[in-house]
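The records we work with from here on pair a chain with its fold. These numbers are not coordinates but entries in a learned vocabulary of local backbone shapes. To see the layout at work, look at the sequence and tokens printed below:
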Amino acid sequence: MKKFNEKRNIIGDIVRKNREKMHYSKTELSHKLELLGVELDRFELYKIETSKTSVKDFELIALCIVLEIDFNEIKEQMEEFIENYA
């Protein structure tokens, strides 16, 4: 599996931060994602939050919708990540 500086995704920190801000457990988030037709169980969410797995495009979009994540926040996170590790 492809990695960038030992991480398989850079969205994990944003997902965790916004999930905690909205006071959702991983199980609650999983249920909300299911309503959008995206099946991610709490263990898969754990792997996303800890950057141990890749995130598919439809999963990313669903996470952004449920957690009210602005795509600009993801872009800024990527730019910061590149600055720090490139």
Remarks:
- The first helix runs from residue 12 to 21.
- Residues 12-85 form a domain with the 434 Repressor (Amino-terminal Domain) fold (CATH 1.10.260.40).
- Helices lie at 12-21, 26-35, 42-49, 57-67, 71-85.
